[in-house]
Design goal:
With 152 residues, this protein is mostly helical. The protein has 5 helices and no strands.
Length: 152
């Protein structure tokens, strides 16, 4: 890999991270009015679980690609966009805040919901990605010489 390639890949991570962070900030701002700061932090839970699903989906879909763009897609969308969208630091901060305020049950529910919800969402994303990859493989096998698949 040349230094030019390295700069391009770094730029993809930066671009994706900026877009992902803006998406998370927008969701946090939109949901801020729905909580009083003492309940479950729905915005962070939503972005982390949704991000886990999207990362599972992405990993499975691009695992079946063999083209050279695969690495760059993962850097842009996985490391960049979803890395900026999801937020471990906010999870850790909100858990610490709940624990310091003596809201132990809330902290336990939030931690469990994030970890278990994220694991389940990742698994569902992998399954969805596998379905997409298999459908794409079926369509590619059915394509004729003109690139047109059979009509259904």
């Amino acid at each position: 890999m040349t230094s030019r390639d390295g700069l391009i890949e770094l730029g993809l991570v930066v671009l994706g991270g900026a877009v992902g962070s803006l998406g998370r900030a927008a969701i946090s701002a939109a949901l801020a009015a729905t909580t009083d700061g003492r309940g479950l932090p729905f915005a962070a839970l939503l972005v982390n679980v949704t991000g886990a699903f999207a990362l599972g989906l992405l990993v499975e879909v691009i695992a079946h690609r063999s083209d050279p763009a695969r690495r760059r897609i993962r850097l842009l969308l996985g490391t960049g966009l979803l890395g900026g969208f999801t937020t471990y630091s906010l999870l850790a901060g909100e858990l610490a805040e709940s624990l310091l305020a003596g809201r132990y049950a809330l902290a336990a529910v939030y931690a469990a919901a994030t970890l278990l919800g994220g694991a389940l969402a990742s698994w569902l994303g992998l399954l969805a990605g596998r379905g997409i990859a298999q459908a794409g493989a079926r369509d590619a096998r059915g394509a004729g010489p003109q690139g047109a698949g059979p009509r259904r």
